[in-house]
Amino acid sequence: MKLKHIVIAVDSFKGSLSSMEAGKTAAEACRKLIPSARIDIFPLADGGEGTVDALTDGLHGQIIPTTVTGPLQKPVKSRYGLLPDSHTAVIEMADAAGLTMVPPTQRNPLNTTTYGLGELILQAISDGCRDFIIGIGGSATNDCGLGMLTALGWRFRKADGSAAGICGRDLADIAAIDGSGADPRLKTCRFRIACDVTNPLCGPDGCSAVFGPQKGATPEIVAAMDQSIRHFAELAEAAQKKHGIKHPGAGAAGGLGFAFHTFLGGELVPGSRLCLEAIGVRDALKDADLLITGEGRMDRQTAMGKGPAGIAALAHQLRPGIRTVAVCGCALPDAEAVNEHGIDAYFPILHLPMRAEEAMEEKTARQNLRQTVTQLIRLLRD
């Protein structure tokens, strides 16, 4: 085939290469063999870990460091990505309230808060941002956004009129919701939330039952939190005059999906689709001959909406007949599912038996990736 235009969008090889590092390495191999080809490199992410780095680096933005209140109400270092348009912020909630911030022995969703995420949003608003791309995976919380909303200016009162707390355990005490103090700048903001789960807020498929145990919840805590979250959500629906308990994705990140949808008018979007919109890859794909994508580990989950499958599907939609190949650090036996989702073939980059630690060294990963892409281009070029 005649390769005149190649689009490269590779997700990060976690622990080895960032999305853009992988993309640039693949591009070097392509240019060496086809110097006349147009080669476009895009960052790739799916809204999870690495999204801030991928979009900020790939779109030539900058990382803005800050300090916020962590999930255990202690100061933690955090950050957000500011894109070149100066009004779009990319945030991972895990940078403010992530499960990894809580030692295993202290994990209990009754005691954690999303307050720091609200602080992070306010910092970005003060810096001029009004468009938000927020990944909400990896939370340590089950507070239904109580902490975040409190930081943003909502007031939650107990029956005696005193202020409620900001943690998961405090949801049960809330008797009234007052939004009059919410930051007025929020009305000019757009929130797009990377959300790959469709769980409702409550019940056997809700956030407490499905995700609570991994955050340290016992069966007793799960039952109590499900009840208190339903109580809070019914008050919220009445106060906001908007339904959200059964909204697909409401149960994401301990009810953050509900909070963004009901209080902030946020749009819950599959992560890979949201990130593909952000990187502006559509026009490049329309006349591309080859798409090179991939990620560190390829398996059945890749086919379930992760970055490589998402961009492969978009490529075939925009450019029927485009050749799409993927490279990966390793491939599990069930990775063949990706062949049914737009990826014509995938190629693990490992060339010699070696320990995982050695394979993940940056120099080794870069060499293996370059060698694999070189062989792919030799096979596919005219």
From TrEMBL:
Molecular function per GO: glycerate kinase activity
A Pfam family hit: Gly_kinase
Membrane-crossing segments per the record: none
Single GO BP term: organic acid phosphorylation
Keywords per UniProt: Kinase, Transferase
Record's keyword annotation contains RNA-binding: no
Coiled-coil region: none
Source superkingdom: Bacteria
Family statement: Belongs to the glycerate kinase type-1 family.
NCBIfam families registered for this protein in UniProt: glycerate kinase
Name listed for the protein in its UniProt record: Glycerate kinase
